[in-house]
Write a structure and sequence with these properties.
327 residues, MetI-like fold, 3 domains, two-stranded antiparallel ribbon, MetI-like_sf, transmembrane helix
């Protein structure tokens, strides 16, 4: 028997044993499932269970657990404690009925929707214009400008919020510049309108570079032959932008709009920093900040969970509408 025949025989034997082992093992122990099991476990523990637990808590009055455990079990090197639930009472849909008359919730939703209405057009138009400009071969030092515009994206949210508060504080850099050019200083942190718009301005400063890079990547995938054919047909720049650029960028536009929507409805750090610095609470508080107050300051975890469910429903409905329009 030649060495080639011997290797072929060994290969067939190993393949037979592997097939037999796969038949004997349950389907859950097959290699693909085994390789995915760590990620599936992490998903179940840190995502699926919290979502389910939040949904369940929205139907209960729940104030957390006591600092003193209900039961302690000493296992030698390990000491296991069973927490004592402070107050757990089923209330059905009362939390959702409470939302209808909760004026603080209504104001928080208004503030969040205001940011949504201001930021979505701004976070699309400005980055798209910058991307078109930096995609042109006529612009020198394009890579330098791209890098500079991306720097804010790497900034820590708390850090840049504190810096902006210092700039617009009474007697700060903004006031000094206004006085220098003969304009009365603006009470950024004392006026609710300006506080809301300051949150919007910080968000634009933070995410313009990121959205610009996404748009730039989309622009560079558009075939130049489309523009050449349109130019031969006598199309103007506006017509080429309307009938070539926008349709080709539709998936990118949808991505930017959906991710920006989620980011806006999750606003927490910027309002928190402004409120702690003296900004009006009613005009600056977002829905996520209100959930934080209800759940972790007032310890109304049941109502906080119901508000979280409401937020998820709102964002899901808006995102589905955006997908429907985008298609």
């Amino acid at each position: 028997m030649s060495s080639i025949d011997r290797r072929t025989e060994l290969y067939d034997e190993l393949r037979y044993k592997r097939q037999r082992l796969n038949r004997l093992l349950p389907s859950t122990l097959n290699p693909p499932f085994v390789l995915l099991s760590p990620m599936l476990i992490l998903f179940a523990v840190f995502l699926a269970f919290p979502i389910f637990f939040t949904l369940v808590l929205s139907f209960f009055v729940y104030q957390g657990v006591s600092a003193e455990p209900l039961l302690g079990i000493n296992l030698g090197l390990v000491y296991i404690t069973i927490p004592q639930v402070l107050d757990l009472q089923f209330v059905g849909l009362q939390h959702f009925e409470r939302m209808l008359s909760d004026s603080v919730l209504h104001q928080s939703l208004f503030n969040t929707v205001y940011l949504f209405a201001v930021l979505i057009p701004t976070m699309v138009i400005i980055p798209l214009g910058l991307a078109i400009a930096l995609n042109s071969a006529l612009i020198r030092f394009r890579n330098t400008f791209r890098s500079l515009l991306l720097i804010p994206t790497a900034a820590n949210t708390i850090a840049y919020s504190v810096v902006f508060v210092a700039i617009v504080a009474e007697g700060g850099l903004a006031d000094s510049l206004f006085v220098l050019i003969g304009i009365d200083p603006i009470a950024w942190l004392q006026n609710g309108f300006w506080s809301r718009n300051l949150i919007a301005f910080m968000s634009v400063w933070r995410w313009t570079g990121y959205n610009m890079i996404i748009f730039l990547a989309g622009l560079q995938t558009i075939s130049g032959s489309l523009y050449e054919a349109a130019e031969i047909d006598g199309a103007t720049r506006l017509q080429k932008f309307r009938y070539i650029t926008i349709p080709q960028l539709r998936p990118v536009l949808l991505f930017i709009i959906v991710t920006s929507t989620i980011s806006i409805f999750k606003k927490f750090a910027e309002p928190q920093i402004l409120i702690s610095s003296g900004a009006p609470l009613e005009e600056t508080r977002t829905i996520v900040y209100y959930i934080y107050q209800v759940a972790f300051q007032n310890l109304e975890l049941g109502y906080g969970s119901a508000l979280t469910v409401l937020l998820v429903v709102i964002v899901s409905v808006i995102s589905l509408m955006q997908f429907r329009v985008g298609d």
